Amino acid sequence: MKKNLLLSSVFLVALTLSGLAQTKNIVINESTYKKLTAPGVNHVRMAKKADKRKGIIRVKDAPHERLMFEKLITQDPKTGELPTNFRERELKFLSDNKNQFISRTKSQSIDWKQTGPYNVGGRTRALAIDLTNDNIILAGGVTGGMWRSEDGGASWTKTTSPTDHQSVTAVAQDPREGHTDTWYYATGEYSGSAGASGAFYSGAGVFKSIDGGKTWTKFADTDRYDTPFFNELFDICWSISVDPTNGDLYVATYGGIYKYNFGEETRNLVINSAPTKNDNYARTTDIICTPSGIKYATLSSEGTINGIYKSVSGNAGDWEKITPEGFPTNYDRTVLAYAPSNENILYFLSETPGKGLNGHSFWKLTTNGNELSWEDRSLNLPAQGEDDVAGYSSQGSYNMVIKVAPDDENMVFIGGTNLFRSDDGFATNANPVKTGKDDPNNTSKAYWIGGYATENNVSQYDNHHPDQHSLAFLNDGKTLLSGHDGGISKTYNYKQTEDSGQEDDIEHPSAKPVDWESLNNGYLTTQAYTVGIDANDLESYEILTGFQDNGTWYTYREDNGIHKQNWIHLGSGDGAYCSMHNNKNAYITSSQRGRIYLNVYNTTDKEWEWARVDPEGVNSEDVLFINPYEIDNNNEAIMFYAGGTDIWRNTDIYKIPKFSNDAASIGWEKLTGTTVSGQISAIKSSILPANLLYFGTSEGKIYKTINSHSSQAVTTEITGPSMPESAYVSSIEVNPANANYVYVTFSNYEVESIFFSKDAGETWTDVSGNLEITKDSKNIGPSVRYLNVLNAENGPVYFAGTSIGLYMATDLNSNTKWTQVSTDKIGNTVVDVVKTRKDGFIVVGTHGNGIFHANITPGEPTVDPAGPLVGIEDPVETNTKLNIYPNPMENSSRVEFPNENNESYRLIVVDASGRVVRIIENITNNNVLINREQLKPGIHIINLEGEKIYKGKLIVK
Hints:
Layout: H1 3-16, H2 18-24, H3 30-36, H4 43-54, H5 63-74, H6 86-96, H7 98-101, H8 106-109, E1 113-116, E2 124-129, E3 137-141, E4 145-149, E5 157-158, E6 170-173, E7 183-186, E8 206-209, E9 217-218, E10 237-242, E11 249-253, E12 256-260, E13 268-272, E14 285-289, E15 295-299, E16 307-311, E17 320-321, E18 334-339, E19 342-351, E20 360-368, E21 371-376, E22 401-404, E23 412-415, E24 419-422, E25 446-450, E26 468-473, E27 480-484, E28 487-491, E29 517-518, E30 528-533, E31 542-547, E32 551-556, E33 568-571, E34 579-581, E35 586-591, E36 595-602, E37 607-612, E38 629-631, E39 639-642, E40 647-650, E41 668-670, E42 680-685, E43 692-697, E44 702-706, E45 714-717, E46 729-734, E47 742-746, E48 754-757, E49 765-766, E50 784-792, E51 795-802, E52 805-809, E53 819-821, E54 831-836, E55 841-846, E56 851-855, H9 875-878, E57 883-885, E58 892-896, E59 905-910, E60 916-923, E61 927-931, E62 938-945, E63 949-956
Antiparallel strand pairs: 1-56, 2-3, 3-4, 4-5, 6-7, 7-8, 8-9, 10-11, 11-12, 12-13, 14-15, 15-16, 16-17, 18-19, 19-20, 20-21, 22-23, 23-24, 24-25, 26-27, 27-28, 28-29, 30-31, 31-32, 32-33, 34-35, 35-36, 36-37, 38-39, 39-40, 40-41, 42-43, 43-44, 44-45, 46-47, 47-48, 48-49, 50-51, 51-52, 52-53, ...
Helix pairs in contact: 1-2
Organism: Ancylomarina subtilis
Protein name: Putative secreted protein (Por secretion system target)
Pfam families: Por_Secre_tail (PF18962)
């Protein structure tokens, strides 16, 4: 283990455990680090306990806000909607142009490696256990593909090809003897909050396997690319079910229920919620088949045809509406389950705004032939109190699941944000719900067994995760698998009623009626928003990542395969922008709506300290869901914050008082002249020359601020005339060797995506090249999320993260040829972020398969040397007061400058590539010695910052 990796890793572990170390006498050394990162240790819980002691307030994830954000960044700005069938059409665009995206040289020679996170999973709506072998599990990530385990979840293999559609939302096995090797999965996720055409990840129909889920083929009748959205209801699939009597397949989609006769791949619409042109579709549906072949279906109330239905044949026209009298008239998603031990007993859980308990209803159905007996048990559901996360909540139908224990018709499990079990089918009031604590006065038959922690403090239940989507039972009467926004969990005693752990013991749960273990053992389905690496430490392989639904996580690397050490959990909520600084003695994490924490290692007290640093004057409702900040590339104390319509600046975030959860009031000011329309969506500061800031907005505008560090800051708009109107600026990058070279991406569909300027925004060139469609094409080009540049041995290499994978180019012009990278590993997975470093280190964050990394041979910059920009202090002028001798340097040089008042100055040395190679803090006299150590021959820029700013040039022999 390299010393610098170990030390920085220990610092972060020390941060997570700083409170624990004070009370448990934990010694943070190499042995302890290995123990704490071993498989099975619950880092989420350790972080929660440390945060509780330290006082950091944890935040929930926000799925509906996230969906609206993803719609904003991808919608066609001309219509405000996502293009019809956008996922299929962009994949068809890739397929039709496959040959021009292939490179048999540089792009495919890069050795890309899966980085993890090994112990963190993503949103899992599809989950099933093989009826013939309890060790075989099939699970699917909403954007991460289908996965298969043959050892009970101890390890996983991805069975979806990287070049296939990566959405998996439901899975089912043919249960008939002789047919159990036949499996089906459905695709496409929808959220009722985003509008019909706002489904952020549309599907590709149904896939089939005949070898136990090892390989998959797509049903031919769902392989369509040019049909309008509402004629292709298979873009969204809620659930699938196989008739155990004959193998017929039923699919619940947006707008209806479809049937495939066994052995056929032509579907029949057997319940159509909008039978005529002017009718309305039901947004949500569900379908189950009982062991005797009785089919039950639900369709939400906005559909012209809606309600609860029953059928024996399953054929069109043979469905009986059985919605009970008294059922609410306004209802969204309704999920249902039968009791495996008595299929005449069924339960229905529905989101019913304004009715039931907290907007949800629960009904029991008992059948006896054609006789139906309904019972409304809605008021017995777990109630939401005044606290943050108690009770049942489906978050607008986003997270809903219901199952009945295989051997007990009265034991019902329901999932919303939390997972609950009722031992009497909610026949009696669940409240107060039991949490595993010994309370003889509590006679409830309901238990809080997953999701948020029973402490009700927005922390997570041990080895579990909020937002429930799927459940699967083994046939042993004890074991249950749970699929949620954090992957997959497993309990060996789902009937457990009392806590088996020891209070405050980090190795055991506390106040938990059911114990879980994580099955995220290489189940690589996380969805990354952002990535942070150390830009200055060329030997560092440490990575920070902000994940959707899962907060911020950290790892270091030194092997070449999947990083099987557990990543460490550092922040809650939806993980947003993150970064490492000050030789990894400081790191920054943020969550949704721009909430930012700075964590600093106090080298004197040998302890980690934290501070909330986002500005007090900004309303969180005014900023983006994933909201950017920028640390000045020449002064790590300066932070720029996207405050909605303004840029805010703090010249020293390290002076913000520690240990406060309140937004910061000290040091923040709005940058004059940065008020814009829309929301600021991307920020980037320069290296050479310093003090230049570029930023872009959600309405397609680009701006440049000169003298961004000082009161002399001046902002001008530099939007190019050919840039798309009202489009979302998803990234801005600045060449580290010359800030005149600027790269901008727009992430919307149906717009030109990538622009390049060599003159600081005076002129722009559309360099999207072959990533865009021809005018007569029925397809669409990809959504471009990020662009980064790396100086390689043979010249610059440009990497573009898109909605259909990672692409690279070696020359930017009006006909740029982009080639797809890592088709065998990253494939067509959405790539949200690409980070590069001077030493050739590249990290890629995907929206479904976690993190990848690679190394290429670095080279020197080939751009023109950076010169002064108009409006920025001229270094030649300031050099008259900066004396450097000897110059050129042999072993060391001394820098002298005026400092009559003994003010504190900071010296920064930048090499010719723009990389910061030396920082000397707290210089209070009028000179400082620079040793040659680690300085390579060549020209270096000296920046001296304090009461005044001095610049000079140092030549190293």
